[in-house]
Design brief:
Tetracycline Repressor, domain 2, homodimer, 2 domains, 10 helices, 196 residues, mainly alpha
């Protein structure tokens, strides 16, 4: 974080920030990204628009950081000692109900991002890249422990496999992703492809 | 096809049907699904709205069948003698330029489908299910040749893996899916997960 950003951030307490993020996600569920306005966020949270813009720069960053903040547990908080354990811990980060809600939000946002360069940039920077960094750490520990080989050709595709599980689940099975589904997918697809 | 459907279909020649489908896809690229109207299709193609509704029932069916018609080669047309050959033939059905165009259309449609039960139903019936049927035939031939085991736990997830490759490619790599990418993914992920 730059000094300027640190100064900007210091204006809100963590509690107030969490409150704002919750309100943003409520609005996002109610009206979707395109119809969500900074005015509506300001009204709902009794914050000034100046504060919102000073803190977040704009709608794209505010919405994406709200979703990021909402993730209950970071990948890097989990180090179970095995690759399979780390993958299952990833699936266990959210209960099924929350996973259904969040996957609907993420899907809506990913859709909106295709027509909106600001949102796509924020989405990648704050939601995709951090997950990929964390995933790389999980894989590196697997390599260090000798569970998988660094030169396995499936290594660059782990994120694709995982996103596929989420994206295809609704379309093919007309079901939300659940922990049971992700467990089965990890054991049947991800670990075998990695030769683990 | 039911007798009633056969009578309906007989009203248009295959050439005229192809012409209508092309116009529908042009409109879909120009304005997207939500803004596309049967009026616009009728104007663009100099067809009567009565004809369009008689032939296709509604917008969802018309759009989905236009996309289905546009697919250059059916999976079942390909029987190369090996599982890998069949998968690579799938990837080779479209050149990279067409794959980029179509994947943008499919993504747009999949997005619109989440808020539109008619479209979701048509999308699944005419685009997802036929692909899954064809994929099942490819896999069954692989089982019959002894290349893969019918009870391999990855069998129910092949479509998820493939959809993941398409869906994640844009989001992670900011690139359209290409044949080279799909070849690498098939060799690194799909075949190893299937134990082939």
């Amino acid at each position: 974080m730059t000094e300027a950003a640190a100064v900007r951030r210091s204006r809100l307490t963590p509690e107030r920030e969490a409150e704002l993020y919750t309100a943003v996600l409520d609005l996002l569920r109610e009206v979707g990204y395109d119809a969500l306005t900074m005015d509506a966020v300001a009204t709902r949270t009794r914050a000034s628009k100046a504060t919102l813009y000073r803190q977040w720069g704009g709608k794209a960053e505010l919405v994406v950081k709200a979703l990021r903040h909402h993730k209950p547990l970071k990948f890097s908080d989990v180090d179970t000692g095995t690759l399979r354990g780390d993958f299952l811990a990833l699936a266990a980060r959210q209960d099924d109900c929350r996973m259904e809600q969040d996957s609907a939000l993420m899907r809506g946002l990913a859709m909106a991002a295709h027509g909106n360069p600001d949102l796509l940039k924020a989405f990648r920077e704050w939601l995709v890249e951090p997950e990929m960094d964390e995933l790389r750490r999980v894989l590196r520990r697997g390599v260090d422990r000798g569970e998988i080989r660094a030169d396995n050709p499936a290594m660059p595709f782990v994120m694709h496999m995982l996103i596929g599980a989420f994206a295809a689940r609704t379309m093919i099975d007309e079901l939300p992703p659940t922990q049971a589904f992700l467990h089965a997918y990890i054991d049947a697809v991800v670990l075998p492809a990695l030769g683990a």
